[in-house]
Write a structure and sequence with these properties.
The chain is built from five helices and three strands. It is an alpha/beta fold. Strands 1-2-3 form a three-stranded parallel β-sheet, covered by helices on one side. The radius of gyration is 16 Å and the shape is globular. The termini are far apart.
Length: about 140
């Protein structure tokens, strides 16, 4: 059995729901199936938002449940890796990223930033919880 290295792909969500995230992970698993492939890195990229006032933001634009669903599926995939048995120091990496305006607040982006704080909080919490389990979690703003 040989492991294929550096196979990269993007999987866009059809909607901003946990169900869409589950369907995207099913597509990932179909394309990169075990035992030939291991998922070593998963990247959550927050969607692009147009600056708007807080009262103009609708709940469907807030990706809280999808970010949590993504993180859960990614951690399960990383925990399923056998890379530690082959000498690797980590199971893999989970990265949260997005356009800076969504992750950092300023006068124009403050309403959106307040709603998009979940990647920052989620990455910090998951880093604390899974760091000792050899899963690296980080935020790249």
């Amino acid at each position: 059995m040989s492991i294929h290295y550096l196979q990269l792909a993007t999987f866009k969500l059809q909607s901003n729901t946990a169900q869409a995230m589950t369907e995207a992970w099913e597509s990932v698993r179909k394309r990169f199936h075990s035992p030939l492939y291991e998922i070593r890195a998963s990247i959550w990229n927050s969607r692009h938002f147009e600056p708007k006032k807080f009262m103009d933001v609708v709940p469907e634009e807030v990706d809280v449940s999808t970010a949590i669903s993504f993180a859960r599926k990614a951690i399960l995939a990383l925990k399923g890796n056998t890379s530690l048995q082959r000498g690797s120091r980590k199971y893999g990496t989970l990265i949260f990223t997005g356009k800076s305006g969504k992750l950092e607040a300023n006068a124009v982006t403050c309403p959106i930033s307040s709603l998009q704080c979940i990647p920052r909080f989620l990455s910090q919490a998951l880093c604390r919880e899974f760091g000792d389990e050899k899963i690296q979690v980080s935020l790249k703003a």
